[in-house]
Specification:
By secondary structure, this protein is an alpha/beta fold. The chain has 15 helices and 17 strands. Bound molecules: NADP nicotinamide-adenine-dinucleotide phosphate (NAP).
Length: 483
């Protein structure tokens, strides 16, 4: 796979690898007549063959993550010893005129990304441009050209992972995606390798930092959703269009990736039940606190009993978590994933789920892993790094879920209301665990909060439909699930 040619970047890197001798040679290449250059090239080629092989990276994107990656390569001291064997040889961006936060030779920067994925010199294509297109086409083109892929792009993997992994398998190249779920937390490698001896039964995660930041502020400060979202946008924790985060799309993308690795089957994004956090109010946070819970946007994936071929339950929604649960104390933009497996029991990973440094940390680890694999077994795919899934998980419909529920209801403040509610819940076999009544409402309305015992989603929704028919009911502002 490796070339005999020495380019300027490769020679520069070897300066600190081979000390003064190479410094002298480098100077010779660039400053003396052609005849000597050829001689020097021969010397360098000899060194390259005997000592080290350089692996060339084509970096697609020099935004937040791409810049973080470039900075790590520019400062390799004290990091993995393979780093100096890897070179960012080409960088693709949209705008050549943009000021960059990292010094990159303009000669290697291009806005022709297709040329990078077709460049025979490039071994590994790192895709950190984001979005679906042109990312997907570039990744597929790179694979077709025999390049290994490292990507941080959860959106493209969650939607087109099927096509991408099938192509990679046929071509015998790696597709690495540690940064695509939970940024800097090394959970994907753990699922692929360190936890390989376990039968995973459950994976639960706070996988979106923006919503966790908003819900944490609401919990600690009693703030309202809209005000907290606006503040998160000002601070750069939330996008101008916050839909992907607050409506749970980003979390669903990440859960599709994590669940497929945890449970060994591909997961279709459209099979994931998804609800966002827009309906959560400071009143709900207050009641949750009073009842011993906090509220988090959780991704939940569980192995089921394989009835009717259904083998997985997977959902993303705001969830009441008992305050003593390990995920209840993950605050701010931090992400966390709790994995339950046999025989390990419970293991919890937490850390920064986004940001230039954290995400670049995961991207660079993937690059190092690919290079290490290429060095040690150049003609084989390392089974621990490749993708072996071919079948799709059969996901349970949300009606099958069995869980506790929290509901906040506004009723007319009349005698017999609680009795009416009890009858409606009882009719559908929903038992109550806790009930709180506050006659606080200005319009003569009473606020009633119930927490059920474990019940099927189907039965609970039937009970809610019956309650909506009651004359005494005003509205049901919030229904949430409890972990
Ligand atoms: N930011 C994070 O903390 C984070 C965390 C985890 C995962 N990720 C994922 O990492 C990926 C990159 O995110 P980011 O935050 O680094 O994005 P970003 O700051 O918006 O950077 C995107 C880069 O891609 C380039 N680009 C975008 N569209 C392009 C096109 N059509 N042609 C050529 N170049 C194009 C941009 O070029 P210009 O600079 O010229 O505009 C820019 O350099 C995304 O998939 C994201 O989901 C990000």
């Amino acid at each position: 796979m490796h070339r005999n040619q020495i380019n300027e970047g490769g020679a520069k890197r070897r300066l600190h690898l081979f000390g003064f001798y190479v410094v002298a040679t480098y100077a010779v290449i660039h400053r003396v007549p052609k005849k000597t250059t050829i001689k020097a090239n021969k010397i360098l080629t000899k060194i390259k063959k005997s000592k080290t092989v350089t692996y060339k990276v084509g970096l697609l994107g020099l935004g937040t993550v791409g810049t973080g990656v470039a900075k790590i390569f520019q400062d390799p001291a004290g990091r993995h010893p393979l780093l100096p064997d890897i070179e960012i040889a080409r960088v693709g961006v949209r705008s050549l005129a943009k000021q960059r936060d990292v010094a990159i030779a303009s000669t290697i920067v291009t806005d022709n990304l297709a040329a990078i994925v077709s460049d025979p010199e490039i071994d590994i294509v790192v895709e950190v441009i984001g979005g679906i297109e042109p990312a997907k086409s570039l990744i597929l083109k790179a694979i077709a050209n025999g390049k290994h892929i490292v990507t941080a792009n959860k959106a493209v993997i969650a939607r087109h992972g099927n096509e991408i992994f099938t192509a990679a398998k046929q071509k015998g190249v790696y597709v690495m995606l540690e940064a695509a779920a939970c940024g800097g937390i090394p959970v994907i490698q753990a699922l692929k390798q360190s936890l390989g001896g376990n039968r995973i039964s459950e994976l639960t995660g706070i996988v979106n930092g923006t919503t966790n930041y908003i819900l944490s502020r609401m919990y600690f400060e009693g703030a309202d959703f809209d005000a907290t979202l606006a503040e998160a946008q000002q601070l750069g924790y939330a996008e101008a269009d916050p839909t992907a985060d607050v409506d749970g799309y980003d979390a669903a993308d990440k859960m599709a990736i994590l669940a497929s690795l945890a449970f060994g089957d591909r997961v279709k994004l459209e099979d994931i039940y998804r609800e966002g956090i827009r309906s959560i109010t400071s009143a709900d946070i207050g009641y949750a606190k009073e009842l011993g819970f906090t509220i988090k946007l959780l991704g939940i994936a569980r192995r089921t009993d394989s009835k009717n071929d259904i083998n997985l339950e997977i959902r993303v929604h705001p969830t009441l978590i008992p305050i003593q649960h390990p995920l209840a104390n993950i605050h701010g933009v931090t992400n966390a994933v709790r994995i339950e497996g046999d025989p390990i029991g419970e293991v919890v990973f937490s850390g920064p789920g986004a940001g230039a440094g954290a995400t670049a940390s995961a991207v660079v680890a993937d690059i190092i892993n690919v290079v290490a694999a290429l060095k040690s077994m150049p003609n084989q795919v390392n089974q621990l790094m490749g993708c072996s899934h071919e079948h799709y998980a059969k996901i349970a419909p949300i009606e099958n879920t069995v869980t506790q529920f929290y509901a906040r209801l506004l009723t007319h403040d009349k005698p017999g209301v609680i009795g009416d509610l009890g009858t409606a819940f009882g009719k559908h076999c929903v038992s109550l665990n806790a009930i709180l009544q506050k006659n606080t409402s200005h319009d003569g309305l009473a606020e009633i909060v119930v927490v059920t015992q474990r019940v099927s989603e189907y039965n609970f929704q039937q009970a809610i439909a019956t309650i909506r028919e009651l004359n005494t009911l005003h509205s049901i502002p919030t229904v949430l699930r409890v972990l």
